[in-house]
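Deliverable D4.2, example record:
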Amino acid sequence: MDKVVHFEIPADNVERAQKFYKSLFKWDMQQFGEMPYWAVRTVEVDEKMMPKEKGAINGGMLKRDEKNDPGSKNPVIVVSVPNTEEYCKKVERAGGKIVLPARNVGNMGVYARVKDTEGNIIGLWQELKK
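Output generated by the structure prediction step:
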């Protein structure tokens, strides 16, 4: 069974959104390198940036930009899969669509966004083995 491992929250005003989530849930947020992407920690992480608590997930925040970043209109759950490109093919066979083709995220993993048969956007994540 593939599991949800991450979430993404788009924002028109990232600073305002961060203030909201920090004040409401006490989440920690840090910009991810030079990228316009912020890591959102809902729980403590280990040295590999993985949640220390079993079953917990962390996420990310990004500027809402449907034109340049398909699928960034609404929050997205991200599911861990063994092979992102294979799952993109499975999505299409099941009646879904690819909205953001598989792409490497540094040396950490391969990410894609797909649309299900109901119009929902879901992220697919393949962790790269080191």
